[in-house]
Amino acid sequence: MAEEGYLTRDELARARAERLRLVRDPVAFTAPHFVERVRASLPRPLPRRVETTLDAALQAEVQGIIGRPARARPQRGHP
User: Fold this and answer.
1) 79 has pLDDT over 70
2) Listed residue (21, 57, 52) closest to 36, CA to CA
3) CA–CA separation, 49 vs 28, rounded Å?
4) Alpha helices of the chain — where are they, by DSSP H?
5) Top-confidence residue, 78 or 50
6) Which of 23-49 are b and which e, b meaning 16 or more Cβ less than 10 Å from the residue's Cβ?
7) What is the pLDDT of residues 7-64, one digit of tens each?
8) Distance from C-alpha of 29 to C-alpha of 21, rounded to nearest angstrom
9) Which residue, 62, 77, 71, is CA-closest to 31?
10) CB 46 within 8 A of CB 39
């Protein structure tokens, strides 16, 4: 990240000295396809922060529907 200009020398030194604690996150991304599409559209070098408007509740609902067997999914026009 330092080579790409995202970190200053001081930030790099602090990062190298920091002890990492790894934690497995079962839900790293709510919508990985959305994240990849946004990343692909960003200018280079990548900005440090990006804000988007993903509706996480709607995304979870859609993923739940898609994950069901076809016969258990709501039919078009029916709840």
Assistant:
1) no
2) 52
3) 17
4) 9-17, 32-41, 56-67
5) 50
6) eeeeeeeebeeeeeeeeeeeeeeeeee
7) 999 999 999 999 988 887 665 677 888 889 999 999 999 999 988 888 889 988 888 8
8) 19
9) 62
10) yes
**Considering the entire predicted model, what is its pTM?**
0.44
Q: In this structure, what token pair is assigned to residue 7?
A: 């970190």
Q: Which amino acid is at 19?
A: R
CA dihedral 15→21→25→29, nearest 10 degrees, is 0
* Alpha-carbon span 11 to 62, nearest angstrom: 40
Please state the domain extents for the chain. 9-72
Q: Higher-confidence residue: 5 or 75?
A: 5
**73 and 67 in contact (C-beta within 8 Å)?**
no
